[in-house]
């Protein structure tokens, strides 16, 4: 009783420590049973083929089909999130990222849901790149990257400020089992397509003919697409509501050219559109479906065609991850010798902050992409130094007109046609 009174008064004594130690022997630690999946009886992380938990926030990740892009996004695309691909000017390279995402789902046995207003989803799946799964295929892909200069020569050719920056893995990494590599020169085997589970939404087939041309066609098209998504998620158990379904799987959703005039949207035709809120409402509802299901979504959108840039800002805010592609085709960079080794730039505009105050952002900022014969690669943008011969000649040619104008404008002070040298 004295010991109990002493403990109750809050005074620390040997009897109190001994009594608390005796109680802790029986109640502090419990053996982990079969029902508890994590230490301490916490929830067990899902084990699904083609997924892995993030080492930073524990979020379940899937591969985008491009390991270099996974590295830039902090390890992959989080399940329950939306990836927005802002298409390049002529929509040449953005379909490749779209097909990589779908091909990765087929290889891992995920369920696909493909929506398009331009092309039949069955035709899109027929054009997916072939995976490189065996060692022979990886060695063949390594031969593409074998023509690299020695390390000493590379240090001499690139500018000094790039030598201290972290490197990116652009070729196959043999030790990595998350994500696969694909050969864009070959098509995916037909037996993989036949054994896969996929659903297609082709807008002309799901829209009644009587609604075409009416003002409600746009909203009805988006509503049909949302109802299609909801039906697949709940009927096939991707919402987790069916406890009897032991084998979990991932639903990969791909939407092509969303917001384009092919979907009946007029945001690409008018600056002050009367229906500019329909796309944002669609994305808001779609995010709710993604958050409550085992699904990941990728959307390609012609952002350069949207007349009102405020709509582009709203769409980016409603997307979890935003990646923009800038092609050199039709621009002055196409003939610029500085960018002769690349086909365009890639911009990581937004990375989600999942269970963290900060995002897992890569240190690489200057990114460029190029399409080889077999591979679409993302690399660090290496510009030649200013002292090289090619850049020196081009710089003198570019500066010649401006030098003439400066010479004529400052003739009174410089005394004629002397060339200004800074």
From TrEMBL:
* A GO cellular-component term linked to this record: elongator holoenzyme complex
Where the protein is mainly located, per its record?
A: cytoplasm
| A single BP term in Gene Ontology | tRNA wobble uridine modification
Task: State whether it acts alone or in a complex, and with which partners, per the record.
Answer: Component of the elongator complex which consists of ELP1, ELP2, ELP3, ELP4, ELP5 and ELP6.
Pathway listed: tRNA modification; 5-methoxycarbonylmethyl-2-thiouridine-tRNA biosynthesis
Name the record gives this protein: Elongator complex protein 4
**Alphabetical list of Gene3D superfamilies matching this protein:** P-loop containing nucleotide triphosphate hydrolases
Q: Where's it found, cell-wise?
A: Cytoplasm; Nucleus
List, alphabetically, the InterPro entries matched. Elongator_complex_protein_4, P-loop_NTPase
Q: Which residues form the signal peptide?
A: none
Family, per entry: Belongs to the ELP4 family.
Entry keywords, A to Z: Cytoplasm, Nucleus, tRNA processing
Q: So what does this one do? A: Component of the elongator complex which is required for multiple tRNA modifications, including mcm5U (5-methoxycarbonylmethyl uridine), mcm5s2U (5-methoxycarbonylmethyl-2-thiouridine), and ncm5U (5-carbamoylmethyl uridine). The elongator complex catalyzes the formation of carboxymethyluridine in the wobble base at position 34 in tRNAs.
Q: What is the gene name?
A: Elp4
Residues annotated as region Disordered?
23-46
Q: Does the keyword Repeat apply?
A: no
Short name of one Pfam family: PAXNEB
